Amino acid sequence: MVDHLASEIEKKWAENPSLIFEETLSNVYAEFGLFGFQDMVQKAHRLMMGKYQKMWWNYFKQFWKLPKIIFSLVLFGFVWICFTTFGYKVVMYCNWVLMIIQGLYSTYYFLFRRFFKKKLQLLSTLSLGTEPPAIISILPITFFTFYASFTIPFGVMSAFISVVWLMTWAGYETDIYFLKEQHRLYPQAFA
Questions:
Q1: 123 or 106, which is more confident
Q2: E strands, 8-78, in order
Q3: pTM attached to this predicted model
């Protein structure tokens, strides 16, 4: 895409060497039609999202293999103990608050920090699309925290909450991998 754009700009300059770069770039871009490179950008975005989802899945699967399965089981046990010690509503409220804090932190780390530092960084679908299943899981957690008049057994809810946090962790690891990959591929953009 960049090579094609550069070739067209060079062709225009060969015809008229006095053209200004910005004007030439705008004219060449306009020749690509109403949507310009949008089709190519969308195709690249779909390919990147596919790669991202595969990588996220690989990081998530690591929590079910040694040594990370030990952490997964400890997390499950910790949540279960919290349910039995503090009660259903308290744990659900605390989990909901932690999810909000995590969402705010994600938004700051992967979105606002990018704009404040004026650096090219991964905009990981606002990091809310980072772990799509985890985001969808906020709905049932919110429902069972605020609206439900019945409770799900502690074991089931402990497993559900533990898996949500493991998905979130896998999302962070994926985001960090892509940031490092961008630094490796485009070091001049991060100078």
A1: 106
A2: none
A3: 0.70
DSSP symbols for 94-160: HHHHHHHHHHHHHHIIIIIHHHHHT------GGGTSSSHHHHHHHHHHHIIIII-SS---HHHHHHH
The one-letter amino acid code at 14 reads A
CA gyration radius, the chain: 23
Single-letter code of the amino acid located at 125: T
Q: How far apart are CA 54 and CA 153, in angstroms?
A: 32
* Chain segment 24-70, per-residue pLDDT in tens: 888 877 777 656 667 777 887 788 888 888 988 999 999 999 999 99
DSSP-assigned letters across all residues of 77-97: HHHHHHHHHH-HHHHHHHHHH
Instruction: Give the span between the Cα atoms of 142 and 174, in whole angstroms.
Output: 26
Position 119, amino acid: K
